[in-house]
Amino acid sequence: VQLQAYGGGLVQAGKSLRLSCVASGTTAGITFMGWYRQRPGKQRELVAGITAGGTPSYTDSTKGRFTISRDNTKNTVFLQMDDPKSEDTATYYCNALRWTSTYWGQGTLVTVSS
Q1: CA–centroid distance for 42 within its chain
Q2: SS3 label, residue 87
């Protein structure tokens, strides 16, 4: 499975940004897909995840501001970032779980300016 993320860049605080991640290769059997991030000087952390059936989960820091969704027909997962804050500045990585294997995208940098 290869994961390619798109949509990072510079965004003003309070505006919106949408990240996309497309899975390719042997995608049959992918269950969980998620977005992680790594802020400067911090460990990588889960931002949001979504099951194959579309059930989302969020961390407390992003709940109510970020929305994760997926289009299984296009093997794509999205992260809608509304009202981003400076502390959301990070490299965002998409993640997919297929059977017992975990796959990572290359990361896309999101910089939130105040």
Answers
A1: 17
A2: helix
